[in-house]
Structures are given as structure tokens and as C-alpha cells.
Design goal:
The chain is mainly β. Helices cover about 5% and strands about 55% of the residues. It is built from 1 helix and 18 strands. It has a 4-stranded antiparallel β-sheet, with no helix packed on it. Strands 8-9-10-11 form a 4-stranded antiparallel β-sheet, with no helix packed on it. A 4-stranded antiparallel β-sheet has the order 12-13-14-15. It is globular. The protein starts with 7 loop residues before the first strand and ends with a helix. About 30% of the residues are buried.
Amino acid sequence: AINKNQEYLFLGNANGNIKIYKIEEIERYQQLYLISDQFSSISHIDCNDELNMWTSASIDGYINIYTLPLCKLIRCIKVPTNKCSYAFLSAYPLPSIIIISEENDEEKKSEIFVYSINGHLFMRQKEQSLITSPLIIKDINSYDYLAYIGKNNIVIRSLPSLFMQVIIEDLPDIYAICPSEDMKILYAINKFGKEIYVIKEENKKLLLNKNNANNNK
């Protein structure tokens, strides 16, 4: 992982160790810290400049939260599942930690956990498929949302409530999603590289109104 201001580089390995480097210039790095607080493979690292924190997830279900740039351990959270795949930090509208975990290898389903920075569980949401390519995106008010690929669809949930804002269906073989720099457009590409889907803010609002209308009906 690299922080938003591109000052620090985080590298995790299969032994649970994390190296933090200071990015001095292009292709020149200075190692600052070696963190050895986790005991299984590092599955994900996320850094949030707004909170001055970074977090690491290991496959045994432990999440560590550190200060930035001093790398002081603030808190350790253990999710009640076996495997933790992703951990994100969200600043707005409420500082929180978003964790995505796999239930087990047989069912291929994911579960989302939202904790406060103090380690209290806010929300818990089970999915009917495996979550891939999750990321945090923002709206024009700088509020954070969780976007990810489900089973032939793209889902966008508000944070920290996990309320489903948008679901875009009938997108077969979606491989990855990525927001534009201004966060107004979401790009999606299928695994064969033959199609790119462009999802604009207007489309998301229109789809949200349609889903609400169907629910009310």
C-alpha cells in the first residue's frame, strides 16, 4: 500500500512482517520501521491520511491499527471468522474500520464488519457471494462508500451503516473496478478485457431511485 500523499510505502509478507519505507524520490526509499506484531500472512494494508492511521489484516482474522507516521500500535481487533481478506479505514461521516472476511472455503461467501476506531462493532452484513475488488470511494461531499464486485454485479454501500445505495446487475465476468480521480465515475472491466463499463453519478442516482420505487411498490 501507498498513502494518498505518496510519502510512505507498506510491504507485508507471508510471515506477518510489515516493512514501512519513506518515499524520498522516484525509485529511492528509506526503510523506517519493521513491524512484527502479526503471526500469519498479511492479506491487506490500508492507509488513511485523513485519520493519520494505517491498518493491516492477516489471514487468521486479526486487524491491527497504527498511527501514521510513528507506527504506534493503537488497537488489535479479532473478527469472529477464520479468514480476513481486506481491512479499510474510513474517515467520513464517522471514523470506522471496514473488514471483509470469508466465511469458509466451501461456501465462497463473504461477510462485512464495521467497527469503530475504539473497536466496537457497528454493523455486520453477510453476502451471498464472494466479494472481490473492494475499495473505498467518495461522493461530492467527501463521504465514504464501500464499493465491490459481487456475483455478476457491482454493489455500493454507505458507511458506516452498510445501507445499500446502488446495485448494478447483469455485468458478467467483472474482474476489477476503479474510480476516477474526482470520484464521479466508476470504471469496471471484465476478465477478458473486451468490455469496459462506465458508471456515472447520474446513473447511480437514477438506479437508486428505481430501486426505491420497486421496494415501495
